[in-house]
Design goal:
Radius of gyration: 19 Å
Number of helices: 10
CATH superfamily of the largest domain: Ribonuclease Z/Hydroxyacylglutathione hydrolase-like
Distance between the termini: 22 Å
CATH architecture of the largest domain: 4-Layer Sandwich
Largest sheet: 6 strands, mixed
Shape: elongated
CATH topology of the largest domain: Metallo-beta-lactamase, Chain A
Number of domains: 2
Length: about 270
């Protein structure tokens, strides 16, 4: 799976996050404004740039940005360590989004994290694996993440909802120190606003054979990038550091867009951090 954001996307996001003009960024990078525009559009460079000056201006790690330009991709994690978790990717009008199904391998109780655009592959996975869908956890309320929610709730009317969305009934609203048991798996939640006011990350533990944690992060962080700071860029970065990067290095990160990654890989390679 391709990265959600190429290096040019990352620079554009970072530039906008600090309100740097194209002219200032181009000068720092030793590019013309047209060359910077091309880079931000397609992620490729025809000549060397001044990573140090550009990174300082837009608050990106220069070495990590250079690695991204040169083609860094996360090493695909071996999902055999996490039994059982599946990524489901759906598409609409050129946009792809990830949902996740997690279940206890013994009692087959399952949870769905976000819905994506299309319920059909979710229904197929549940049937193929003889699962009992018990919970739906929403990372935030943006339309691409909840598009199939109506169809899923119609098919599974008794499923329990979990969300930080404003106006969510109290019985469906996440409480910070609560945890939900899914068979032997334990699911907790952490606030990760910034991209969205209702952003939340779900941390799953107690996988068989001491498998590492898995964190369903929505758009808080992507492999090599992060979601837009629609609410606040500073808050979005702060919450990633405080609520996600304090998990163990081997934790599986399951983003709303793009490939799976780990805490260790993002600390080592994500230019925003």
């Amino acid at each position: 799976m391709n990265l959600e954001d190429h290096a040019g996307d990352v620079v554009r996001k970072a530039r906008l996050s600090v309100n740097a003009s194209p002219e200032a960024a181009a000068q720092a990078a030793s590019l013309s404004v047209a060359e910077l525009s091309d880079f931000e559009s397609n992620g490729t460079l025809a000549k060397a740039i001044n990573y140090a000056a550009l990174g300082k201006l837009v608050q990106l790690d220069a070495g990590k940005l250079e690695g991204l330009v040169k083609g860094w991709q996360p090493t695909p994690p071996d999902l055999g360590q996490w039994r059982e978790i599946r990524q489901i990717t759906t598409e609409s009008e050129g946009m792809t989004v990830n949902a996740y199904v997690v279940w206890d391998e013994v009692n087959r109780e399952a949870a769905l994290f976000d819905t994506g655009f299309d319920a059909a592959p979710i229904f197929a996975l549940i049937e193929e694996n003889s699962l009992q869908l018990k919970h739906i956890f929403l990372t935030h309320g943006h339309s691409d993440h909840v598009a199939a929610l109506g169809a899923i709730r119609e098919k599974y009317p008794k499923v329990r909802m979990h969300s930080d969305l404003k106006g969510t009934p109290p019985e469906h609203r996440n409480r910070r120190n609560d945890f939900i048991m899914l068979g032997s798996l334990r699911i907790s939640n952490r606030e990760t606003p910034g991209h969205s006011e209702d952003g939340v990350t779900y941390v799953i533990g107690n996988f068989p054979e001491d498998g590492p944690f898995a964190a369903i992060v929505g758009d808080a962080i992507f492999a090599g990038s992060m979601g837009r700071g629609n609410q606040s860029w500073d808050l979005a970065k702060q919450k990633v550091r405080e609520s996600i990067f304090n998990l163990p290095a081997e934790t599986l990160l399951c983003p709303g867009h793009g490939p799976l990654t780990t805490i260790a890989q993002e600390k080592a390679h994500n230019p925003f951090f």
